Fold this protein.
Amino acid sequence: FFFFLGMEKLVVCPYKRPNALYRLICFPWSGGGTSQLAQWGKLFSSSTEVYSVMLPGRESRRKEPYVKDMATIVNEFTSVLLKELQEKPFAFFGHSFGSYISFAVALHLKEKYGLEPFHLFVSGAHAPHSEEFIAIKTIPMSDLKDEDVLKHIEILGGTPSELLQNEDMKKHLVLSFKEDLRVLQTLSFEKAERNIPFSCDITCFNGSEDKPYGVEAWHDLTSGDISFYELPGGHFYLLEPSNEIFLTKHITKCIENAGL
C-alpha cells in the first residue's frame, strides 16, 4: 500500500531539478518539519536536487498515526524511494533524530540492495553503537513526564517561543518528542568486530555549545574518510543563517569532489 502513498507524500522538494546529477536527501529533527531543510534546495547549484523527508504525525501527514518503530520508517522510505535512489548518486543529511533515521535507512539500503549514499552527513548525533546512544535507549518511557519533556525542548532551543505559548502546539511537540524517542529506542545496531557497514565518507557536524557527542565512534562505521566540524551555537546551530551557508557550501564541495 506504500506505493499508493506516492513520493509527494513522503518527501518535499520545492526546488525540483529533474536534470540534477545528484540528490541530497535530508532527514529532519524530532518534532521538526520539512520546511527548513527543504528550503536548502535554493542554496545548492543546479547539479543537486534536495529532498526533505516527511514522517507521519506531522505537517500534511499530521492525521496519520505516529510510527511505532524504526523498521516501519525504513521500509516505507525504501519502498517509495528505491527507484529514485537507483537512478542517480545520492547523499544523506540528518540532524539529531534525523541522523539516526538516515543511518538506519542507509544501513538497510546497503544490506538489502547493495546501495549506499556516496556521503553521509550527520549532525548533532551520537554513533548508534556508542555508550551515549545506548543510554538513550534505556530511558524508561513510562517515567517521562510531559513537563520534563517540555523543559528539554526549551533547553534545546530551535522552537519559536510563540509555539511554546500555544497549548495545542505544546501538546503536539511533547507528543512528537515522546513518539520519536520511542522510535529511537527500537533502532538496533550491533557493531560486529570485523564488520564495517559503510565505505562512504562521513562528515559529522555539531554545535560548539551543544552537549558533546562521542564523535570518535563514527570512525568504526566506515572505511571511507571521516571529518568533524564544530560550528558556533547550541543544538540548533544549523538554523543560524551563517551556519546554514557554511553547511550548504561544505556539502556542495563534498558532493562536487566526490568525482562521481
The longest strand covers residues 201-207. The chain is about 40% helix and 15% strand. The chain has a mean pLDDT of 89. The first helix runs from residue 2 to 10.
